[in-house]
Amino acid sequence: MIPEPAVGMPLPERQHTPDNVQLMLYNASLWNGHRIHFDLPYATEVEGYPGLVLAGPMLGDWLHQLVDEWLGDAGMITSVSYSNRGATYIGETLTATASITAYDAPSGALEIDVGIRNEAGEVVAPGTIGAKLFAAVG
Amino acid sequence: MTGLISDELLTNIGRKSKPQREIVTRRDIRKYAVATGNRQRKYLDGDVAPPMFHVPLFWDVVELDRLTPDGVSIDTLLPKFPLERAMAGGLDIEYLMPIRPGDWLTSVRTLTAIYEKAGRSGSLIFYEIIMDIRNDDDELVIREKTTRILR
Predict the structure, then answer these.
(1) pLDDT digits 0-9 by tens, A15-58
(2) Is the minimum CB–CB distance between B90 and chain A shorter than 8 Å?
């Protein structure tokens, strides 16, 4: 069972260091053929990126995973709002972070600030996740 | 409206895609869970779909000769905009019901807004698309709003 939520409480962080195989499988699962994700000469020489670009929605998925793992079977994600603010690349280690910004004990409604931080400390995918606990915890 | 957005461009607001109906399979859930690095057994086994599974489920499947040279499918819901370079965008998603293997889901996308804002280096065009995903009982399962910025 998860601990009683409190405003300001951080959730355990998680680091992601995706490699070419993971990025290829992710885009294959979508049917996304965008060359910037798998064609290194194209990504660097034509588009001018420093490397293969991570798919934006994959970072969005990691925001969900951080909260969803913490919730386990005690609750569910009800909403998300996030944006991709900057490109990220194969070889980077990205850190998913979250902290509780609102909790309404009677309804179980939670609001959680989430983000993906790159190694330079920039938040490249900020967002907010709404969640609901199914029953009182503690 | 002044600036980049013509009255004619605005007439595209309200345009809807054809409904797209897809079946959820355990195999597709498993592939997505593995590819995203998910660690929860219920998703890795495909018993239930993780959040954002609707992204692969409804990604447009187009034939090779309809992809652009950089491998992107053209979104036929969109009109021709006076700005073309896409910047970062955002997603707002409401999750109303769980998704499980065997579910048939139907999505309809609607172009709901086109507007202009002043950016630091000139005007930006924003557009919004809402995708409603319903089950065969016509219950809303997911509502997703995509906001994209053009410069």
Answers:
(1) 999 999 999 999 999 999 999 999 999 999 999 999 999 999 99
(2) yes
Number of domains chain B is built from:
1
CA distance B93 to B143: 6
Q: Are A83 and B89 in contact (CB under 8 A)?
A: yes
Give the separation between CA A138 and CA B118, rounded to whole angstroms: 48
The candidate with the shortest Cα–Cα distance to A124, out of A101, A95, A91, is A95
CATH number, domain of B123, equals 3.10.129.10
Question: Could you give the CA distance from residue A99 to residue A108 in angstroms, rounded to a whole number?
Answer: 16
Residues 40-59 of A with CB under 8 A from B: 42, 46-47, 56-58
> A55-133 belongs to which homologous superfamily?
Hotdog Thioesterase (3.10.129.10)
Domain ranges of chain A: 55-133
Which pLDDT score, from 0 to 100, does residue A41 have?
98
Can you give the pTM of this predicted structure?
0.95
| CA separation for the pair B56, A5 (Å, rounded) | 32
The DSSP code sequence of B78-118 is: S---S---B---EEEEEE-S---TT-EEEEEEEEEEEEEEE
Question: Do the Cβ atoms of A79 and B36 come within 8 Å?
Answer: no
Establish if A17 touches chain B: CB-CB under 8 angstroms. Answer: no
The boundaries of the domain holding residue B112 are 7-150
